[in-house]
Specification:
This protein is mostly beta strands. The protein contains 2 helices and 11 strands; from the N terminus they run βββββαββββαββ. Strands 1, 2, 3, 4, 5, 6, 7, 8 and 9 form a 9-stranded mixed beta sheet that branches. Strands 10-11 form a two-stranded antiparallel sheet. The longest helix is centred in the middle third of the chain and has 14 residues. The radius of gyration is 19 Å and the shape is globular.
Length: 227
């Protein structure tokens, strides 16, 4: 018989708070390990920041068109600085985590990772060639599915942490599509903007999530990213 209970978490592995594995964050990825994911559209974009009061840290999220200002009240200090931090761009979408074999709601909050995703997705918009990266409609679901996968990897520590993104051409298999359709209710990502659980579905929620995700090219023109 073991001395510790079966759900015991060693102190060295964190504070013992159960991990909510319905969500994915690149900052929480294990170091030096390939994480294979598949993206599902449409995505959302917004702003994320953290406040601190009485020793408690609180996460905040707002749609892209509702910028909270450079220094929202109570925002935490920037890492390694005495100056206040500022809200960061965040890209939100449903993913299939092939490494852990589960659907997750991902919040990409690292600019380097978002830019690498843009490099893949933007050229894919509007292409119909068989070989092109695409997001394909799924009958029976509000989501579209990427016909490619991404391999994410985290290396280094603290300020030297780096993230890499590689693309693999791999269509979603039939069983994955079937599992997506079986999700009941279907995740409702805009719920995050009103501090609700996206895994409970849309229900009676009516949220205006954001303006379309856009990027600006070298000529100053804006392009929608509709995945």
């Amino acid at each position: 018989m073991s001395f510790f209970p079966s759900d015991y978490t060693p102190v060295g592995d964190g504070d013992g708070t159960p991990k909510d594995d319905r969500y994915f964050n690149v900052g929480s990825m294990p170091k030096d390990k390939d994480i294979v994911i598949r993206l599902f559209g449409p995505s959302l974009t917004g702003w994320q920041w953290f406040t601190e009061a009485e020793g408690k840290t609180t996460s905040h999220l707002s749609p892209f068109h509702q910028y909270p200002g450079k220094h929202p009240p109570g925002i935490k200090k920037a890492y390694g600085s005495e100056k206040p931090d500022s809200p960061k761009r965040v890209l939100i979408c449903l993913i299939w985590n092939g490494t852990e074999e589960k659907f997750q709601v991902a919040k990409f909050d690292r600019a380097t990772v978002i830019k690498e995703i843009e490099k893949v997705v933007i050229p894919a918009e509007g292409y119909e060639e068989e070989h092109a990266f695409q997001f394909l409609p799924v009958e029976g679901s509000p989501f579209t599915v990427a016909n490619f996968g991404l391999i994410l990897k985290k290396t280094g520590e603290k300020k030297d942490t780096e993230y890499s993104v590689k693309t693999i051409m791999r269509r979603a298999n039939k069983s994955l599509i079937e599992d997506l359709i079986k999700l009941d209710p279907q995740p409702y990502l805009p719920a995050l903007f009103v501090s609700e659980d996206p895994w409970l579905g849309k229900g009676n929620l009516e949220v205006t999530p954001s303006l379309p995700t856009t990027v600006r090219d070298e000529n100053g023109a804006d392009h929608e990213v509709n995945f």
